[in-house]
């Protein structure tokens, strides 16, 4: 389903067509598409070119890790995110790898990577719904996120939903 933003000035269709749905088709996302999403994130700009982000992801086909990825979410988010094809966490490395001093741009840069991932996704007919509604401590425990990395946001990319296969539970 398309839900274009009513922009006041013209913008690229990949910006206009991005939105955060809570329902989606049951179709799988091809591995080649998934790789391109993370490739787009990889080429985001970052302070000192540190690229201080990483993604922890599980597709529905990896039930063990997919179930783990649901655990930190608040109930409201579990209700719809459990039907996504993929769940993941964006994590930020809080110190520069080059000299171990604090990188105050780590979250900013991770956001830039997510923005590129999201735009690449939209261009492929895949929509990403980001979430802050999860417990960071649970996420850290479940995925053994090391100290020095902050689990900033959770996300669920999925195919645009079709009305016929809607699984919306709110
Ligand atoms: C950092 C961040 C955290 C968010 N957290 C949640 C969340 O926990 N649950 C949810 O349903 N939506 C969440 N959203 C989605 C926003 O509500 C949504 O992006 C916003 O309402 C604008 O709508 P749009 O993305 O469809 O344009 C989050 C978005 C961002 C960027």
Description:
It is a single chain. The chain has about 170 residues and is α+β, with helices and mostly antiparallel strands. It has a single domain (about 30-170), classed as NADH Oxidase (3-Layer(aba) Sandwich). The protein is built from six helices and four strands, in the order H-H-E-H-H-E-H-E-H-E. It has helices at about 15, 30-40, 65-70, 75-80, 105-125, 135-145, and strands at about 55-60, 85-95, 125-130, 150-160. A four-stranded antiparallel β-sheet has the order 1-2-4-3, with helices on both faces. Helix 2 (about 30-40) packs antiparallel against helix 5. The two termini are about 20 Å apart. The structure holds flavin mononucleotide (FMN). Flavin mononucleotide (FMN) binds near residues 130, 132, 133 and 153.
Give the gist of this structure.
With 170 residues, this protein is α+β, with helices and mostly antiparallel strands.
Keywords:
single chain; 170 residues; alpha+beta; NADH Oxidase; four-stranded antiparallel beta sheet; 6 helices; 34% helix; 19% strand; globular; disordered C terminus; binds flavin mononucleotide
Strand order of the largest sheet: 1-2-4-3
Q: For the report, how would you describe the main beta sheet?
A: 4 strands, antiparallel
H/E series = HHEHHEHEHE
Q: What do the pLDDT scores average to?
A: 87
Oligomerization category of the chains in this entry? single chain
CATH superfamily, by name, is: NADH Oxidase
Radius of gyration, in angstroms, nearest whole number: 16 Å
- Summed up, the domain count is 1
CATH level 1 name: Alpha Beta
Are any ligands bound, and if so which?
Answer: flavin mononucleotide
């Amino acid at each position: 389903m398309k839900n274009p933003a009513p922009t006041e000035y013209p913008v690229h269709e990949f910006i206009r067509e991005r939105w955060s749905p809570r329902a989606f088709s049951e179709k799988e996302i091809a591995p080649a598409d998934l790789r391109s999403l993370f490739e787009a994130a990889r080429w985001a700009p970052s302070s000192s070119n540190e690229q201080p982000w990483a993604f922890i992801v599980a597709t529905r086909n990896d039930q063990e890790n997919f179930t783990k990825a649901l655990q930190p979410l608040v109930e409201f988010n579990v209700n719809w995110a459990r039907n996504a094809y993929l769940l993941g966490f964006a994590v930020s490395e809080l110190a520069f790898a080059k000299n171990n001093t604090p990188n105050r741009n780590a979250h900013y840069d991770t956001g830039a990577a997510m923005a590129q991932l999201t735009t690449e996704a939209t261009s492929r007919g895949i929509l990403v719904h980001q979430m802050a509604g999860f417990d960071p401590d649970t996420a850290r425990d479940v995925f053994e996120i090391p100290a020095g990395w902050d689990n900033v946001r959770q996300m669920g990319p999925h195919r645009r939903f079709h009305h016929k296969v809607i699984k919306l539970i709110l």
